[in-house]
Structure to design on (462 residues):
């Protein structure tokens, strides 16, 4: 049964029905759908759409919705000045959900700094180490007590945030943050962050893209198992491992059940993973961008584009030509031709291969050989699938696979080397060929400012 979603369209003074087979980004009729979101974002009162959806409510949602309804009866298209008055009356600016917090385990001179001989590099490392203090955030207890007033998702432990417009925790960014914290000997802060992610899996069944409710129906590359491994390697805390393992397996099952697809190559079926977010409407934090990008499309085409943009955000590569396809299905389109869900990504499958091997090692450490064998078998199956579907022996690298054209995309991306990082290949010569492939590339593309540094770090590129 298709649900009826209501929101105001640009320059239209009446509500219109938009048929959608998919849920909105979250259930909030303020932060994720509805006329308040639409009119405020369309008015472009702020430089960044994210600003509004990070604001805190001063009254309960029903009071705010009712007040806006009354305001709309006066004038269906509310003037920007009136909208500003409305926001001042019913919303607080972003950031009020946090209290001042400095990581208590931060100290001036972690040992790793002594190992950096180059003076300039050492100064740079000191600056990075200093960032942990300025990027620490602790969520106020009021977010737990009154979640209806916030878009912030409550987590019980303080976090390190990316900074800038990103005021909340983010999933895959935090893998490198946690490794940095461990290097800075901030084990307690790293432990707390991992506990937050375990908490989120237990709440949602997976980890949302970030710590806002408008992210709660999409994830990011599943690095939690590797976070746990980093912590275990630093502490050898088997009690932590035993407590975390069931939740790590829950997250793994989410990706297995909700983000996998079967592809047939040479008569053999293989199961691999993709990014796939079946959620309708524009992204609340990029609302006007998504509306404008979809102008001129049919309702069905809009819905598909918005889903694929969310899947692109789930990938962490938001945004990249990796996901663009032209009318023939080739990797040669524009942002408006984003088709993330049609592509099997090399890096996601390499990551899951490494996760499977790591989960097997955890079970071996804890003495459960039967469970370890199951994950080793899963890793072996994935390895065969990666090599059958993504490996190109002639080029000497792994390439994303297009489910529509049933062919590989041949363009260079650092993700083409992800199986080397994950140690997920069967023959030593594959790694050697990959090195030669990298040397043959005439140019390594410049980093996009919109692509996480983790993409490059994941394959060991500087």
């Amino acid at each position: 049964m298709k649900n009826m979603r209501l929101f105001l369209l640009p320059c239209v003074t009446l509500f219109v029905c938009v048929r959608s087979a998919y849920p909105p980004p979250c259930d909030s009729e303020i932060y994720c759908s509805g006329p308040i979101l639409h009119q405020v974002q369309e008015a472009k009162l702020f430089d960044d759409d994210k600003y509004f959806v990070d604001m805190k409510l001063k009254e309960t949602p029903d009071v705010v919705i009712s007040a806006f309804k009354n305001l709309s009866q006066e004038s269906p298209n509310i003037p920007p000045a009136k909208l500003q008055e409305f926001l001042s009356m019913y919303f607080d600016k972003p950031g009020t959900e946090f209290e001042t917090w400095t990581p208590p385990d931060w100290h001036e001179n972690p040992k790793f700094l002594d190992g950096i001989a180059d003076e300039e590099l050492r100064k740079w490392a000191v600056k990075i180490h200093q960032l942990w203090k300025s990027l620490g955030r602790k969520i106020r207890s009021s977010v737990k007590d009154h979640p209806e007033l916030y878009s912030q998702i409550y987590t019980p432990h303080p976090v390190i945030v990316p900074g800038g417009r990103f005021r909340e925790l983010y999933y895959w960014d935090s893998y490198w943050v946690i490794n940095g914290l461990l290097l800075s000997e901030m084990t307690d802060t790293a432990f707390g962050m991992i506990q937050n992610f375990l908490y989120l899996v237990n709440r949602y069944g997976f980890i949302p893209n970030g710590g806002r409710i408008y992210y709660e129906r999409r994830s990011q590359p599943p690095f939690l198992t590797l976070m746990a491994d980093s912590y275990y390697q630093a502490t050898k805390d088997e009690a932590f491992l035993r407590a975390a393992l069931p939740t790590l397996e829950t997250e793994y099952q989410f990706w297995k059940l909700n983000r996998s697809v079967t592809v047939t190559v040479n008569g053999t079926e293989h199961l691999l993973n993709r990014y796939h977010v079946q959620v309708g409407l524009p992204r609340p934090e990029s609302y006007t961008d998504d509306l404008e990008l979809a102008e001129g499309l049919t309702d069905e085409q809009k819905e598909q584009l918005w889903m694929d943009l969310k899947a692109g955000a789930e990938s962490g590569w938001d945004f990249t030509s990796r996901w663009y396809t032209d009318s023939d299905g080739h990797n040669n389109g524009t942002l408006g031709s984003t088709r993330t869900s049609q592509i099997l990504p090399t890096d996601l499958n390499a990551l899951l291969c490494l996760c499977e091997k790591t989960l097997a090692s955890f079970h071996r450490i804890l003495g459960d050989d039967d469970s370890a064998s199951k994950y080793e078998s899963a890793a072996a199956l994935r390895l065969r699938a990666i090599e059958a579907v993504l490996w190109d022996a002639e080029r000497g690298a792994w390439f994303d696979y297009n489910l529509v054209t049933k062919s590989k995309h041949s363009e260079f991306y650092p993700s083409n080397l992800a199986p080397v990082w994950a140690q997920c290949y069967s023959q030593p010569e594959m790694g050697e060929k990959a090195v030669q492939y990298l040397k043959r590339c005439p140019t390594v593309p410049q980093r996009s400012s919109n692509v996480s540094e983790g993409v490059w770090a994941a394959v060991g590129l500087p």
User: Anything to note?
Assistant: The two ends are 50 Å apart (CA to CA).
